[in-house]
Amino acid sequence: MTSILTRTLRNLPVTSTWATKFPLRLLTTSQPLKTAVQTQSKKTLTKPNVKNIVVVDGVRIPFLLSGTTYKDLMPHDLARAALKGLLHRTNIPKDSVDYIVYGTVIQEVKTSNVAREAALGAGFSDKIPAHTVTMACISSNQAMTTGFGLIASGQYDVVVAGGVELMSDVPIRHSRKMRKLMLELNKAKTLGQRLSVASKFRLNFLAPELPAVAEFSTSETMGHSADRLAAAFSVSRSEQDEYALRSHSLAKQAQEQGLLTDVIAFKVPGKDTVTKDNGIRPSSLEQMAKLKPAFVKPYGTVTAANSSFLTDGASAMLIMSEEKALALGYKPKAYLRDFVYVSQDPKDQLLLGPTYATPKVLEKAGLTLKDIDVFEFHEAFSGQILANFKAMDSDWFAQNYMGRKSKIGAPPLEKFNTWGGSLSLGHPFGATGCRLVMAAANRLRKDGGQYGLVAACAAGGQGHAMIVEAYPK
User: Tens digit of pLDDT for each residue in 91-146?
Assistant: First the structure.
């Protein structure tokens, strides 16, 4: 059945294709990365009698395609490597950390509180509390803002936040019938009781329950939702492929130019040392056009080439009150400022979190889109990014769906994900949020900008946005 959003958007005026609005010359790979357009100096977002929260630094182990070098490890191994890398990068005394919080999505049942297991493995004191949060693709965003709240409320001064995901090895369960049978068998006391329980067994009980990247409420995969969203906003296959090529090309340039400084080397036990992301693979529009639709067949537009891939990886970030950071002798990289979380219909608007969150966080901070020097949005799919652009740039959508008088406008491409994004760098579900914030902070430092805006969509129709302010040099 055609979705409500698809039906109502039929009359949405489309004055130009995305490729026309954002010229293809911006997607070319022959030119070096350019400094983002800078705005005039702006006031700080420091507020009277409100504690400033800063990012001292952040790291991540290389993000790798699932099924490659990390495939024999466990999630806490990756998180431990990120934590140890953060300790090495910042030289923070282990006993100076007050609290550790990590985000993850598909939990390994043996280490369900992966934050605690990783912290112990990294050598942190067993006196330091740690807990794990989950909020789909914005899990490490939630970890960061949880740390932000703990510091802002005066409970702690130093928090480590991060995220991890290992898609190479996800839990596969027995069927529910088999699980119930095994639990009953475990409770049986006598031989007669055990035989009675065993007699209930049927061969089809052995069919396993395989995990799926799908919405529980709709039973729809995220890729299928992305395909419908692209169709609703008239985002063509060629536009999606062009955007994906842009992401991979810019990521390749950033990698070659040494701009991805948050990436740390990781000596994988029994294997070589990994030093860089391995999913960055610029292709050509001709090659990309040959791929078949991945979800809606045969006429869908979402393919393996214009989607983020299953990724293994972990990130970690050192967050402090500004007062504590200066007392310990640190020069922070950025302030963490206002943030918002949003939720909307998980069927028709699953991936529109940035559209809803961006105007809210800008208004909360007293900023406009023109004040932002760098944008870092999570790229789940090319179609998702481009649909968000069109939604953000539509007065009709703002008025009919968001209860706003006018549109917020689409981010200018010259400021948007200029070092690549999740399509090319990878997307370990629980770890991406920290990567986004560090990319924004590092881009601000390099280009001399003041404000960055981080935004992401997530399963369940949720989203997050945060303002990052560069720390004065």
Answer: 999 999 999 999 999 999 999 999 999 999 999 999 999 999 999 999 999 999 99
Question: Any residues with CB less than 8 A from the CB of 20 and at least 6 apart, and which?
Answer: none
* 439/379 Cα distance (integer angstroms): 14
> What SS3 state is found at 301?
coil
What DSSP element (H or E) covers 151?
helix 139-152
How many angstroms separate the most distant Cα atoms in the chain? 82
Quick one: pLDDT band at residue 296, thresholds 50, 70, 90? very high
Determine whether 358 is exposed, middle or buried from the number of CB atoms within 10 Å of its CB (0-12, 13-18, 19+). buried
CB atoms within 10 A of CB 201: 14
CB atoms within 10 A of CB 386: 25
Binning the chain into helix, strand and coil, the percentages to the nearest 5 are 40, 20, 45
Taken as a whole, the chain contains a residue count of 473
Residue 302's contacts (CB-CB under 8 Å, 6 or more residues apart) are 223, 226, 227, 230, 240, 293, 294, 295, 296, 381, 382, 383
What digits encode the pLDDT tens for the residues 338-360? 999 999 999 999 999 999 999 99
Q: Report which secondary-structure segment, H or E, holds 84.
A: helix 75-90
Residues taking part in catalysis:
137, 457
φ, ψ for residue 455, nearest 5 deg? -145, 150
Strand partners, 401: none
CA angle 258, 247, 441 (to 5 degrees): 50
